[in-house]
């Protein structure tokens, strides 16, 4: 049924071993002593110790200054929130766009350009009749340092999606121009 080598392997695993495995406990090494005598340390040893301590103090001071700098930079990084002019109903996801108003809806009386804050306090969602309090403003987040928003070619104040569109749109335009070069021949 089995080949002789497989039978031998099965027998080796099934037969009890005559050797008992006994784990040996871990024995830590005794600490190394720098000097075997009980004499007080010499001036050379104390100078080496003080030199080592001063190097450690200098390194700790350098690390503390680096941490302060990191904390300062993190406090400058802000996420600027820019209004999109869109307010979304939290109940039914209807979006009131200030640029469009709500005249396209049945019973809509607000013309395009009407800001959400100037709507009547009893304004209701045209689809689910939720109150004005149920709407939440949709905002864009722009990550980066506030002090850097004015630099660049206007790209520092762009959102992530706008930057992606710019990058991949540029790559697509280059690709089209590259292929157009083959069409000219």
Report on this model:
The chain has helices at residues 4-14, 43-76, 160-183; strands spanning 77-89, 95-97, 135-145. With 185 residues, it is α+β, with helices and mostly antiparallel strands. The longest helix is centred in the first third of the chain and has 34 residues, at 43-76. It is extended. The two termini are 73 Å apart. The mean pLDDT is 79.
Strand runs, count: 3
* Strand fraction: 5-15%
Shape: extended
The biggest sheet, with number of strands, parallel, antiparallel or mixed sense and barrel status, is: 3 strands, antiparallel
Topology, please?
Elements: H1 4-14, H2 43-76, E1 77-89, E2 95-97, E3 135-145, H3 160-183
Antiparallel strand pairs: 1-2, 1-3
Signal peptide: 1-20
Organism: Triparma strigata
Region (Disordered): 33-61
């Amino acid at each position: 049924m089995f080949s002789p080598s497989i039978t031998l392997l099965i027998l080796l695993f099934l037969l009890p071993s005559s050797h008992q495995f006994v784990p040996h406990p871990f024995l830590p090494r005794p600490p190394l002593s720098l000097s075997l005598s009980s004499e007080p340390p010499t001036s050379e040893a104390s100078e080496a110790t003080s030199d080592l301590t001063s190097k450690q103090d200098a390194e700790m001071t350098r690390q503390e200054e680096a941490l302060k700098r990191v904390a300062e930079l993190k406090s400058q990084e802000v996420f600027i929130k820019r209004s999109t002019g869109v307010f979304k109903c939290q109940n039914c996801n209807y979006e009131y766009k200030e640029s469009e108003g709500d005249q396209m809806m049945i019973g809509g009386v607000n013309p395009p350009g009407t800001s959400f804050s100037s709507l009547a306090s009893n304004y209701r969602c045209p689809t689910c009749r939720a109150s004005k309090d149920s709407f939440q403003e949709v905002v864009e987040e722009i990550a980066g340092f506030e002090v850097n928003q004015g630099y660049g070619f206007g790209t520092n104040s762009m959102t992530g999606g706008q930057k992606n569109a710019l990058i991949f749109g540029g790559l697509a335009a280059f690709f089209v121009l590259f292929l157009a070069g083959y069409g000219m021949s």
